[in-house]
Design a protein that fits this description.
single chain; 92 residues; mainly alpha; 0% strand; elongated
Length: 92
């Protein structure tokens, strides 16, 4: 065999290995027995927990916004009572 033929043979084998490796790994994953049968239920439970937590946080943020609005009105009433009585809510 000439050197070119050896080089091309090695190159062909390396290329085949690179292309076949992901395919063989995918087939192995598919035929492997799975122990994660209950994982889907666990993930759905976690999803429901996260949605509940998100709803609670949105409610708390809305309550905090109401408190901030109330505090701003209270401070404005003590700071500028005559301007508020005239209806001047702008900059001047």
């Amino acid at each position: 065999m000439r050197a070119e033929e050896v080089f091309l043979s090695v190159l062909a084998m390396a290329g085949f290995a690179l292309l076949a490796f992901p395919l063989v790994r995918a087939i192995a994953e598919r035929i492997r027995p799975r122990a994660d049968v209950g994982i889907k239920d666990e993930v759905m439970g976690l999803r429901e927990d996260l949605l509940t937590e998100l709803r609670d946080m949105r409610r708390e943020v809305a309550e905090l916004g109401e408190r901030v609005d109330f505090t701003e009105r209270l401070l404005a009433r003590h700071r500028d009572p005559e301007r508020l009585a005239r209806g001047g809510g702008g900059d001047g």
